[in-house]
Amino acid sequence: MPRTDGRILALDLGTSSARALVLSADASPVPGALARHKVAMAYGAQGEATLGLHDYVEGLLGCLDELQQNGHLEDIGHIVLSSQWHSIVGLSAGGEPLTPVIPWVDTRSVPVSVGPDFDERAFHARTGAWLHRLYWTRRIPWLRTVANASAFAGLPDLVLERLTSHRVSSVSIASGTGTLELASGQYDDEALAVAGVTAAQLPEIVPTGWTGVLSSAFERRWPALAGVPIHPPTGDGAASNVGTGAYDESTAAVTVGTSAAVRVVHPIEGAPDLPWELWRYRVDDKRAVTGMAFSAAGNLHAWLTAVLQLDAAHQEPTGVEIGSSRVIAVPFQAGTRPPETVPSGSGAYFGLSFDDTGADLLAASLLGASLEIDRGLRMLDTVFGHSLQVVLGGGGIDASGWWRRCLTATFARPTDVCAEAEVGARGAAAIALGLSPAPGGEHLEPPPADVERVAAMRPRYEALRGLAVQASAL
User: Fold this and answer.
1) Nearest 10 degrees: Cα torsion 107, 108, 113, 117
2) How far is Cα 189 from Cα 183, in angstroms, rounded to an integer?
3) pLDDT digits over 140-149, tens only?
4) Full residue range of the structural domain in which residue 33 is found
5) 227/264 same-domain check
6) CATH number, position 390
7) Please, which contacts does 456-461 make with residues 24 or more away whose CB atoms are closer than 8 Å?
8) Is 0.70 surpassed by the pTM of this model?
9) Three-class HEC string of 325-362
10) Do both 386 and 455 map to the same domain?
11) Which of 139, 244, 442, 469 is deepest in the core (most CB within 10 A)?
12) Which of 232, 267, 302 represents a domain boundary (last residue)?
């Protein structure tokens, strides 16, 4: 039976902010019960992109202090966490951090050395990952070299350790490291060998039903939370899917935040074969999530509106019909995710003329991002053997009606919009407590004229996309 006693405290460990918010028993946000700590990423010329671990954790703890000061920590029955996937911190043998948090944005790693018998396609089918810098198989050898690290953990593992004194990981978070055997939910022997570590050097993987409680020092700091069960963290992609209402193989969730993704949640038992182009991670002990991620989404919109100096009234291309612009935008400003290898700085615009406006450029960019997401959706249709229903969610979806309509036309199928912007926190609560949230937002039908215009320009987009991929290799 779903456990819905008491309110829910959700901790959301994002890349641009750490947040704490209170949800009702049905995982709806309590008005006003939100505290946020903005996070500043430190960038460097050699591909560095890091987060300060101490400042991040202290900022999150400060969010709990703020909620307590405003009387929002009473009647909390559960504490849940949603977290960015793929982060890593190098630790000493005694567990002290030797590095800042290395998130997915950081491009540093080292090539791995594998023998002639290594079969990366079999490895990908087993782990859902590739030998790519996103994953610990390449991060760990690099951190052993540059920081002399001898143990490793992700940001959510260390946050959980700070709160409970237990350094453990969930099957969901561990799957994002690229070192998990998906079927068993344990570390993969070959992945460990490639990384050059043993399972003892990584956080212990605990089952979905595991719970901890606050350490005595934090119980004194937040007395209302004493003894409240703390559930293992969920990877933000899995949490976002479930939070939108896409929690089975009938429905794909398209989430648009800083980046974007299209994913399907399904049972891990009897999972369909995994195509080379898609990744697969775990949601919990019984479910997996298969999908494709994209590096350009809300960050693309924010960059272009800043470059074009568009004021608030012009940050949507409302005067441009979907698919009508002559301009083609290939949104590779932040490169591509694996298995493609297009580097950042590869964005391209084709067909510019002197009569194009900022609205034309913005419309072309949002359509280009929509077409990229549609590539993943079509692959997922094939994997699951039917045309998937689609739910749209996330901050980018919530902020742009034009983009919602553009995605619907590009997919050439109806979509439902998740009415709740806090899909990650909502999903983490739903996974931990056995809830089944519904999207609850508007239903969109694609206008035939929009669908026809997008379909007519799609071949040109694909051809120019191919040129952009070739140019990125020069």
Assistant:
1) -20
2) 13
3) 999 999 999 9
4) 7-232
5) no
6) 3.30.420.40
7) 456/323, 457/323, 457/328, 458/371, 460/328, 461/328, 461/330, 461/368, 461/371
8) yes
9) CCCEEECCCCCCCCCCCCCCCCCEEECCCCCCCHHHHH
10) yes
11) 244
12) 232
